[in-house]
Specification:
By secondary structure, the chain is of the alpha+beta class. Helices cover 18% and strands 32% of the residues. It has a domain at 9-51. It contains 1 helix and 5 strands. It is globular, with a radius of gyration of 11 Å. The model has no long low-confidence stretch (mean pLDDT 93). One of its GO terms (molecular function) is DNA binding. Residues 1-62 form the HTH LytTR-type domain.
Amino acid sequence: MEQLDPERFFRANRQIILCIDAVDHAEPYFNGKIIVIVRPAFKEKITISEEKLSSFKQWLNY
């Protein structure tokens, strides 16, 4: 992760690193989480925790 450009990539969780070009939109989930919808579609739900939500929103505003 240290070698990836932080303006283009975001660690959603331990398994998933998002590229800003793939993010289509985000939807509210539950318990303060959101689901990220990507293109092309990913078969599992990509969730952003409440703890990472602020960082994720800042990342989208680059």
